[in-house]
Amino acid sequence: MARLLLIVFIIALFFGIRWFQKAPPELVARYIRTLGATLFVATLIILGATGRLNWVFAAIGIGLAFLLRIVPVILRLAPGLYKLWLMMRGAKQAASERANPRSAAGSNMALEEAYNILGIKPGATKQQVIAAHRKLIQKIHPDRGGNDYLAAKINLAKKIILKSLD
Question: Rounded CA gap, 2 and 91, in Å?
Fold first, then answer.
């Protein structure tokens, strides 16, 4: 009997793995969440029925005590953690822009739009374009608290105008 159950389990495992490989990820994620929630509830029911649920309440009490002691520390460190999070997010965004620079700045910018971005009129000289770019980029540069996206737009506008002037 045990061998028969083992064979049935192996066959079910084989078909389960095949389904897992072919199913869309959203469906697999939904089934995994449902299975996890079901196992959690079943475990709580079994522990409650057998009288072994008291360790769960003890763990909840320990967790709450830990949270009450750690919250003041987290609140004191929150500004630094927020700055660190912003730096990490900015680094991730910069890395994605380096990997695909055309999608970051929208490379299909029109010449008229480029002039509007830099705030100059068509027919400006090369020196006027460079000066307008320098003036804007000093205000918008990411190292000075600016935005990566806007800095990329300004750089692209300069590039397009200088290319048209050559």
Answer: 56
Cβ neighbours, 10 Å, residue 18: 10
pLDDT in tens, 75-108: 888 888 888 888 888 777 766 666 555 544 456 7
pLDDT per residue as tens digits for the range 101-127: 554 445 678 888 889 998 998 888 899
| DSSP string covering 105-139 | HTS---HHHHHHHHT--TT--HHHHHHHHHHHHHH
d(CA 24, CA 30): 10
Rounded (10°) CA dihedral 133, 138, 141, 146: -120
**Which residues contact residue 127 at a Cβ distance below 8 angstroms, ignoring those fewer than 6 apart?**
none
Q: Is 106 helix (H, G, I), strand (E, B) or coil?
A: coil
Amino acid making up residue 38? T
| Domains within the chain, CATH numbers bracketed | 6-87 (no CATH), 106-165 (1.10.287.110)
Place of tokens 């374009």: 129
Tokens 């750690």 correspond to: 70
Q: What is the mean pLDDT of residues 113-142?
A: 89
**Is the model's pTM score more than 0.85?**
no
